[in-house]
Amino acid sequence: MDQAVQVVVAGIAQGSIYALLGLGFSIVSMSTRILNLAQGSCALLGGFLSISLAVRFRLPLIVAFAASVAAAALFGAFTERFVNISAKPWKPVPQTTAVLATLALMVIVEGAASLIWGADTLRGRPLQPGAVQIAGAVVPRQYLWNIAAMLAITAALHCFLRFTWTGRAMRANRENSLMSHLLGVNVRRLGSVSFAIGGAVGATAGILASPITWIDYQMGGTFMLFGLLAFLIGGESRIAGAMVGGLLLGVVENLLLLVPGLAGGLLKQVVPMMALLLMLVFRPEGILGRKAP
Known about the structure:
Layout: H1 2-32, H2 39-56, H3 61-83, H4 95-117, E1 131-134, E2 137-140, H5 141-163, H6 165-175, H7 177-182, H8 187-209, H9 219-234, H10 240-256, H11 265-282
Antiparallel strand pairs: 1-2
Helix pairs in contact: 1-5, 1-6, 1-8, 1-9, 1-10, 2-3, 2-4, 2-8, 2-9, 3-8, 5-6, 5-8, 6-8, 9-10, 9-11, 10-11
């Protein structure tokens, strides 16, 4: 029983990271319809920068956290400018161009990370060391921080999109960018804001992941893959979809570790792909997505 509780809590904590990565995809897609594959680079930058500032330069953890998130937000805004450099409000950038451009950025960032931080794996400092007991299981406090951050950010983004003028304008822009432009909305500014928010959320995921896993320069692609899976499995039309998709991935991955003979590194790659395949076949709009009329 204790082991089962430990595995489930670990799965929720791991799924919280996936959910945050998926939220970065969601906020950009809900504003611009662009699939930002450079989202994993924001998580990679957040993790590496926080480790450098907190461990190597011994800055207070909160300062390292804030600086890393701000840097990733700036990178997110730069990504939007780079992708839409030749786009017009009445002629958005083609989806293929956006996907390839963001994928190229992710590869460039991974290469730059290998030059700056090297090929060795690094590990960050936990936000709060130690552990607590839950139903007899020993749970690191970092897991609880991951879960709390995921819930808080999901709720904040939901309220932002539903109750603020900028959030409503983002959702309207996704439906019809030309009409939004004709009504006086600065479409490019909305895009920059959404990419910056996505970058900040991605960096938060990378920072929270760094104390519980090793970070290396190749993790950008891994972050991108699991965030994309959470985004697609949960559904593109609701911000909570990424949360549901991420938690589902994390819990299922960890629960299968209890099955004798199934533990192993290949499992982490097979299970998410199987889940995505089943969703694409039986419910392509995602768990929380709305079916097309």
